[in-house]
Design brief:
three-stranded antiparallel sheet; single chain; six-stranded mixed sheet; Rossmann fold; 15 strands; alpha/beta
């Protein structure tokens, strides 16, 4: 039925705001296609997922009255110092910390993803890793000066006790355990930023009727985020770095979150990446959010102008030479 509805939409429609019901919160809408030969919805539409129409209206009203933060700084925490590396483990960004002595696969490609956003966001961007990428630091830092909060790390989803689901960070102090849990996230002071949860299952959780998944992503919306990029299922490290790196480049061009994801998913499809690598990543919240201003190419314009002037001057001097 959903596939038929998408097929009958006018070609002029490029944005979809979807409010799923019950188990449909687990549906990878980007992977839907009219038939086996048609392109998937994620390559055509800018798709945003919302728990309710009331949440959508609240986000739009908040965005309309918000004064944009000057600049384009991002806060990036990647590959925090937590647990012990399991060198032979599959490189997925997930963990099971409720077991004793848990081990985590090393995130070897996280640095590529982090440095890409650092280059795109530019001045004022703060990138932390290892012991510095801590829960204590995240809670103490005034987050209002950043347009993007990017957490590239492991996550754990506990569907039996959703409030215990957590983003894994370094502790940073004796008062923290390094598990930034769903029950703690709403206490963060966010103001319409984009939050990127580059980890496994960050949009998954127990489904409550009329409220959607009790997920890590939803908790960041409750904290005041304008939109959250998150995943429905496990992400392989190298594939996640490639997909989120492409999203960062598109955000740097001044694209909205949903459009940046659409372009990145279409690129992944064109490169032959399996649906498991791209279809589970989704925008929860306001997909129209544009966190970064378009990069101005003045530096290249002046460089090219200088080259052209030098060539013209050289040609003039050669012409005047007897």
């Amino acid at each position: 039925m959903l596939q038929t509805a998408l097929a009958n939409l006018s070609k002029e429609i490029q944005r979809l705001v979807i409010i799923p019901d019950d188990a449909l919160f687990r549906c990878p809408f980007a992977a839907l296609a009219r038939d086996g030969t048609a392109p998937p919805a994620g390559s055509r539409f800018e798709i945003s997922i919302l728990p309710s129409a009331a949440v959508w209206a609240h986000l739009k009203m908040a965005a309309g009255g918000r004064v944009p933060v000057p600049g384009s700084a991002a806060l990036v925490l990647f590959a925090p110092e937590v647990g012990k590396d399991a060198l032979q483990a599959p490189a997925f960004r997930s963990a099971g910390p409720w077991t004793v002595g848990f081990r985590l696969s090393p995130l070897r490609h996280a640095v590529e993803e982090a440095r890409m956003l650092e280059r795109i966001a530019g001045a004022g961007t703060l990138v932390l890793t290892g012991a510095a990428a801590s829960e204590s630091m995240l809670k103490k830092t005034p987050l209002g000066r950043f347009r993007i909060i990017d957490l590239i790390t492991h996550a754990v989803v506990d569907e039996e006790q959703p409030e215990r689901s957590a983003i894994l960070l370094a502790p940073g102090s004796d008062r923290e355990d390094g598990f930034l849990q769903v029950r703690e996230i709403p206490e963060l002071s966010l103001d319409g930023q984009l939050v990127i949860l580059s980890s496994c299952g960050s949009s998954a959780g127990r489904i409550l009727g009329g409220e959607g998944a009790q997920s890590l992503a939803r908790a960041f919306l409750e904290a005041g985020a304008g939109a959250v990029l998150a995943s429905l299922w496990p992400l392989e490290d190298s594939q996640a770095a490639a997909l989120f790196g492409k999203i960062s480049r598109e955000l740097g061009r001044g694209h909205s979150v949903a459009n940046a994801l659409r372009v990145a998913q279409r690129s992944a499809i064109d490169r032959g990446m399996p649906p498991a690598a791209w279809a589970g990543v989704m925008v929860l919240g306001d997909g129209d959010l544009t966190p970064l201003p378009a990069r101005r190419p003045w530096r290249w314009v002046w460089l090219l102008a200088g080259v052209a002037l030098a060539v013209a001057l050289g040609a003039f001097l050669l012409k005047r030479t007897p």
